Amino acid sequence: MENNPAPTGRTLINKATFRRNFRNKCENQTYLCYEVEVWKDGKWTKVEELQGFLRNQGADTHREPGHAELCFLDRVRSWHLDEGRQYRLTCYISWTPGPDCAQKLVEFLGENRHVSLRIFAAGIHTKYRGHEDGLRQLWDAGAQIAIMTLNELQHCWETFVDNQGQPFEPWPIQVEHIQTESQKLKDILRSGVFW
Fold it and tell me: Exposure winner among 39, 76, 104, 115, fewest CB in 10 A?
């Protein structure tokens, strides 16, 4: 079974699906977990009903094909977030956005000044030509981009996964993977800066 309903009625990711995708074993599939916060009373407050996950939609589904990031943007637009308030969107994603999705995210941020974006990725998606430029443009547009640490992975496990009460356990070489991917991302973002 792909996913199970949470006690709150929210759908959760199957444990094996989470492990496979957030270990970057499925290059053609992207999972995106999201949370929304609103600035209220001097602090960021979670909007519980605007929390969930989605994945890229392909030919094996009953929807039009679409990358997870574009499906997420469709979902955000459907919420009609109040332009008089400040929102922070946090995405925990199995792969960094490719160049086309990065450009769409940049456009979204430009059109929605009341929204900020944080992206925590499990790995850098190098499949598409121009992925570095896309990440730099996203960074330049104000998005925060980082590789998921053990803390973010554990948060996802506890929040978005049907973990059946099992604690999060990092897989072998997880710390090394995080360090390597973090350095790669830092180099990509820095290579666009000219002193």
Answer: 39
Is residue 34 pLDDT above 50, yes or no?
yes
Per-residue confidence band for 22, with pLDDT thresholds at 50, 70 and 90: very high
Q: Please choose, from the candidates 92, 91, 95, the residue with its C-alpha nearest in 3D space to the C-alpha of residue 124.
A: 95
Q: Does residue 33 sit in helix, strand or coil?
A: strand
Nearest to 54 by CA among 78, 79, 29: 29
Residue 151 token pair? 């803390």
| DSSP assignment letter at 168 | P
Return d(Cα 184, Cα 31) in angstroms, integer.
21
Distance between CA 136 and CA 113 in Å, rounded?
19
- DSSP H helix total and E strand total for the chain: 6, 8
- In sign, the C-alpha dihedral spanning 114, 104, 29, 171 is negative
- Reported pTM: 0.90
Query: Residue 145's beta-bridge partner residues?
Result: 119
Mean pLDDT of the chain: 89
β-pairing verdict for 31-40 and 43-55: antiparallel
> What positions carry a catalytic annotation?
69
